[in-house]
Amino acid sequence: MSRLIQNRIGNSLSRLKPQPSILIKNLSTSPEPSLDEESSQSSHIWNVIVGRAGGDRAVSDEDEVFHRLSNDPLCKRVTLSDTLLNKLLHRFRDDWRSALGVLKWAESRKAHHHKHSPEAYDLAVDILGKAKKWDRMKEFVQKMSEDKAVTLNTVAKIMRRFAGAGEWEEAVNVFDRLNEFGLEKNTESMNLLLDTLCKEKRVERARSVLLELKAHIKPDSHTFNIFINGWCKTNRVEEALWTIQEMRGYGFRPCVISYTTIIKCYCLQCDFIKVYEMLSEMEANDSPPNSVTYTTIMSCLNSQKEFEESLRVAARMKRSGIEGDTLFYNCLIHTLARAGRVEEAERVFRDEMPSVNTSTYNSMIAMYCHHDEEVKAVELLREMEGLKVCEPDVHTYHPLLRSCFKRGDVIEVGRLLKEMVTKHHLSLDESTYTFLIQRFCRADMCEWAYCLFEEMISQDIAPRHRTCLLLLEEVKKKSMREAVERIEHVMRTVKLTAPVK
DNA sequence: TTAGGGTTAG
Question: What does the pLDDT look like over A215-259, one tens digit per residue?
């Protein structure tokens, strides 16, 4: 949503009660931090920027962020390491203005000859690309180029962001200009371009790039796997099989990656006869399936609600002596949970897993919530916080929030939201806002729903058309006239998110 | 990013 539109509607907005952002903001009064460790330094900087310390308002541009940080007495005492800077940029990955402000502030704190780490530069490029601020991104890359700071990794970010936004010819242009960045056109950089195009389903365009370049640059086995994936993504498995032959012609043996890619394609076609045929072929061909292969098949079976068959695939993997990794076990736990086998899921979680991550906990928490065992679910959340192996994300909280709504406990909803924002610095995403707005409407609390709607708009997150309609209907029922006007205005002026399929 | 996920659904 453009600043212009926001300004135009800003005036009528400020007269409305409750004020936008008030919901989350009121939830977010955090205590004065002691700045003795990196995470509290990061928290303080975050609070300065989002306006919970010092000023009241959230900032609107990068210079304001810069000035706030420069003028804050506690920020002046912060030791700004590369890790802290990266952590901050990561937190502001959806807010390019704040990210650039932080970077500028970081620059002002350093000695003249000192450069940011390559990760920080690349993160900034990626954040600008994600926000589709192409001019700012090009300008930033130009400055990096003068500092000889552009790496292949930077180029990867630029290409993938361009291609992801449908600007795939721009991605090709970046490759053509590699020499200007002091980088080489070789198999690695060519593969990056081909992969970018294939992932965006421009496999024919990738093909023409290869034909053009192959006199100078030799393809390798990765090149062919990239094309196999490209064909499979566009559901052209015949071409993928043909690429396997082409690969052999170039003297490369198809590997477990080549076969697993094709298996996934058969999975999506629900052609399980072919899936199992290929599995046997792999075993016979001396490229045995691995944990990735089995996880792919299980996930697909799960999406068909074929949980028992999925568990048989897991058993087959164990029989063949292959060790599962975290993603495999996460899938297994999810399967067991969906199959109603809670005790088995608990056993796998406690005794079998080599390591766990956020998703593992999320699956377990969702399982407990699903079985109305919220006490156990919250216990796991606390365990997660205590062990610090992985941190909760918005998905950790979704089932918990859902349970609160189910019991009609909106106080607890508020408490959980506060915890998300203040304790874990999670920012609500589009799907969380949508979910909350729906549930508050259904709970006959459309004032809260409307607050969240405003909060969402103020963060440039476009609501779904359906969300607007639902909320509009509710505020009309309560004769909230200004809210009605405001929602109708948003529906006319903002490009709304299409409903999810 | 050369291959693998689900997540809030009355």
Answer: 999 999 999 999 999 999 999 999 999 999 999 999 999 999 999
Nucleotide nearest to A338 (CA to C1'): B6
The answer to whether A70 and A109 are in contact (CB under 8 A) is no
The gap between A486 CA and B1 C1' (Å) is 41
Q: What is the pTM of this model?
A: 0.84
| Protein-to-nucleotide distance from the CA of A500 to the C1' of B8, whole angstroms | 13
Q: How many CB atoms lie within 10 A of CB A145?
A: 15
Distance CA(A445)–CA(A272), nearest Å, equals 47
pLDDT in tens, A305-330: 999 999 999 999 999 999 999 999 99
Cα dihedral value A334, A200, A227, A160, nearest 10: -90
Measuring alpha carbon to C1', the residue closest to nucleotide B3 is A257
Between CA A417 and C1' B6 the distance (Å) reads 21
- C-beta separation of A248 from A216 below 8 A: no
- Tell me which DSSP letter residue A245 carries: H
Q: Which nucleotide is nearest to A362 (CA to C1')?
A: B7
* Distances A382 to A368, A416, A432 between C-alpha atoms, Å: 14, 13, 21
